[in-house]
Amino acid sequence: MMAGPASGRRANRRGEGERLRGELIEAACHLLERLDGEESLSLRAVTRQAGVAPQSFYLHFPDKRALMRAVYEARYAELTAEMRAALAGLDSAAPPVERVSAVARAYCRFGLTRPGQYRVLFATMGTSGWDPETLPGLETFQLFRDEVGLCVASDADEVTVCLWAFLHGLVTLRANRPSFAWPPIDDLIGRTVAAYVGG
Hints:
Blueprint: H1 17-32, H2 43-50, H3 64-88, H4 96-113, H5 115-121, H6 138-149, H7 156-176, H8 185-197
């Protein structure tokens, strides 16, 4: 059963439209964490979760696709911020391979500690109708690719995709098979990063 909005929500005063927009985004994220993808999400459920009238939605988004783009952008921004924070925590002289490992660990940490939000990142975004040149998440990929590019002389895009596929698989498998005797995640990441970029 989907949770309803918090009771006693006060009306937005003039000038608070941006806050309402953010509440609609968070309401959609909250629902998507429990649904099977964006196709299962209704705008009526989003406005109900946010505690606003259905027609209020169109003051902030022209359609569901625009809402979904905002949802994906918000969650990918959080993931990217964690990856950047991991890099910022390294010594300035850290070798490139260590930087790639730090980004990879941050990615997995996000996915494993915030499984619902990680699931939202892949709630069918990128299927037909999405422009591949403007997909949310490209900044996240580019950050990872830039670090990989410091380690390999060529094929940085391909290597980054391979590492991304490994990390996504690792997060997904650990979430779905928690009782399996998984080796320490840092060991798995270190071994795989070394295999792809050296070190």
